[in-house]
Amino acid sequence: MGTYKKNIGIKGVSSSKTQQVSKQIQHRARVLSTADVEANRSRAYTYLSL
Amino acid sequence: MLGRTFSYKNVGSSNETDVKTDLYTFKCNFNQHYIIEVENHAYNIFIIKFFKKNHKLSKRRYSLVNSKSFLRRNKTNGSKNFLMVLNTVMKIILDTYQVNRYSCFGFIGAPTKRELDSENNEENINEDGTVANTKRFNIYGLYVKRYFSPSDFEHIELPTSSGYLIKSKENIHLTTPLIEEFFKNYINLHC
How many domains does chain B fold into? Predict the structure, then answer.
């Protein structure tokens, strides 16, 4: 995966070619409910019996 | 019930990094060899990765796809083959789970070339190298929801990094904060 860093020129002016916008972020986990799992699930498939 | 799979074999483990990684190979319908990596992490977390063997040396091996000319030559859109690739990965997951009922399986949906292009996808690209809500994240997420029952597994998404974890409910020590911490460290080290 590539990393994109903001590259600002000496005087703080960025050209459209060198400016790569990036976001620093905290990745939050989301535990899906049964309804979330079922929501977009095709009924053509059955859960594996494990 | 799981659909058709390719016949695969375990080809040992890699110790190139400090994470023990089990390696599997198989050959698809187009005689292309694939490598599946199953990384063994703490808390019985297994991170699954796969790529075509001929992309092995590429830094973007997890992002590359079959070229349009390759698909044209083989007179296919590749979807049937792709589904069998996923089924094969799933079979390896199931075999791992049969041995260890505490196993949890994770992936990060690698971005496509277009999703890595800041001109097209600026709003989803993060400074830490991850990309939010990738196409692979959505497709693999739908795929695992078909097979892993929420009565036996928790489905945990980290959409901002395109991370996903299927957590065995028997693995009671692996809490949501620990999962966030795991992905944070994983991203720092691997993305």
Answer: 1
